[in-house]
Design a protein that fits this description.
CATH class: Alpha Beta
Order of helices and strands: EEEHEHHEHEHHEEEHEHEHEHH
Strand order of the largest sheet: 1-4-5-6-7-10-11-12
Number of helices: 11
Oligomer: single chain
Strand content: 25-35%
CATH architecture: Alpha-Beta Barrel
Distance between the termini: 24 Å
Number of strands: 12
CATH topology: TIM Barrel
Radius of gyration: 17 Å
Number of domains: 1
Structural class: alpha/beta
Length: 261
């Protein structure tokens, strides 16, 4: 079994790391370069850097912050926010990113995922997906989720399971799946959504949204079958360290890369 990855998420707005609840009530959580360097030294497996308002404000991710972050991070760095062309993907990758994350742009133009995968390889292309639960269908009581764009602000009418299959077909090498219902609540990941998605695709799925306890991380990796867990609040505000997380998961029998102690 491949090692399970622990990935701090740096949501950035106006050059600062921020964190909210269900995509609102935003709080400051520090400098992105300093936070990335700290998590790198702690033994995080990867870093995700997201310019969370880039698509809404019609601007691109902050290249200079990406460059500075890449200088102090020696683990894979995924960057997302306002990426709308293979030219911009190339610029980010040349600035130090190892992967690029597409959300709104991919919904507008799914072919962009294919273009990126063909030009840079599927391993560089991450499909970021924000989804929210909808009412269970009357016919068979099946859970369903709707995909949202523009940082969770616009409903797309797309069914989550249909969309994850499409992004896999278009060449995405990984899915970053965020539950809008659970995001920032500290009440746990949506393991039912995770299980539905991991069952529908063969590419790795990163769980995002809702981590509050060590048990939540374990549940996402076991009940949800996620390949990695993204965490923000519990790391940014000192609830747990990377070492504590990895020690706990290892004690539960999950394979993890040792933390830096």
């Amino acid at each position: 079994m491949l090692a399970k990855r622990i990935i701090p998420c740096l949501d950035v707005r106006d050059g600062r790391v921020v964190k909210g609840t269900r995509f609102v009530n935003i709080r400051d959580a520090g400098d992105p370069v300093e936070r990335a360097a700290f998590y790198n030294s702690e033994g995080a497996d990867e870093i995700v850097f997201l310019d969370i308002t880039a698509s809404v404000e019609g601007r691109r991710a902050i290249i200079d912050v990406v460059r500075k972050t890449a200088e102090v991070v020696f683990i894979p760095l995924t960057v997302g926010g306002g990426i709308d062309s293979t030219l911009f993907m190339q610029e980010l990758l040349q600035s130090g990113a190892d992967k690029v994350s597409l959300n709104t742009a991919a919904l507008k133009n799914p072919g962009l995922l294919k273009e990126g995968a063909e030009q840079f390889g599927s391993q560089c292309i991450v499909a970021a997906i924000d989804a929210c639960r909808v009412d269970k269908t009357v016919q068979n009581d099946t859970l369903k989720w709707e995909v949202y764009s523009h940082g969770g602000r616009k409903a797309t009418g797309r069914d989550l399971i249909e969309w994850v299959k499409e992004v896999e077909d278009m060449g995405a090498g990984e899915i970053l799946l965020t539950s809008m219902d659970a995001d920032g609540t500290l009440d746990g990941y949506d393991t039912e959504m995770l299980a539905a998605v991991t069952d529908a695709v063969d590419i790795p799925v990163i769980a995002s949204g809702g981590a509050g306890t060590l048990e939540h991380l374990y549940d996402a990796l076991t009940k949800g079958n996620a390949h990695a867990v993204l965490a923000a609040s519990i790391l940014h505000y000192g609830t747990f360290t990377i070492t504590e997380i990895k020690d706990y998961l290892a004690s539960k029998g999950l394979p993890v890369r040792p933390a830096n102690k």
